[in-house]
Amino acid sequence: MALSLDRERCAYCGGCVGACPTLALELAELTLIIDEDLCTECGACVQVCPVGALSLTVGAVTPVTDS
Ligand code: SF4
Ligand code: SF4
Question: Which domain holds residue 33?
Fold first, then answer.
């Protein structure tokens, strides 16, 4: 999967959910559900996340790395 979530960083603020144009993200109780079938890897959610919890590993968006 190209879009990945760092669950330790995620504050479950819901910002990415509202930013997703294809409604691929859903905030459930203490987890963020990513619908891989709906995700177009546009990177919008990666841009809006205030804590850098989302990252794309392929495509046009530069991967977010911690190391
Ligand atoms: S990369 Fe784009 S389509 Fe995929 S979950 Fe994020 S905002 Fe939605
Ligand atoms: S914007 Fe970031 S911190 Fe907020 S719910 Fe999405 S992944 Fe978690």
Answer: 3-56
Model confidence pLDDT, tens digit, residues 7-52: 999 999 999 999 999 999 999 988 899 999 999 999 999 999 999 9
Q: How confident is residue 64, by pLDDT bands cut at 50, 70 and 90?
A: low
From the CB of 49, is ligand 2 less than 6 Å away? Answer: yes
In a domain, 62, yes or no: no
CA atoms within 13 A on the CB side of 31: 3
1, 5, 25, 55, best to mutate for ligand 1 pocket (most atoms within 8 Å of CB): 25
Does 64 fall in a domain?
Answer: no
Residue nearest to atom 2 of ligand 1 (CA): 42
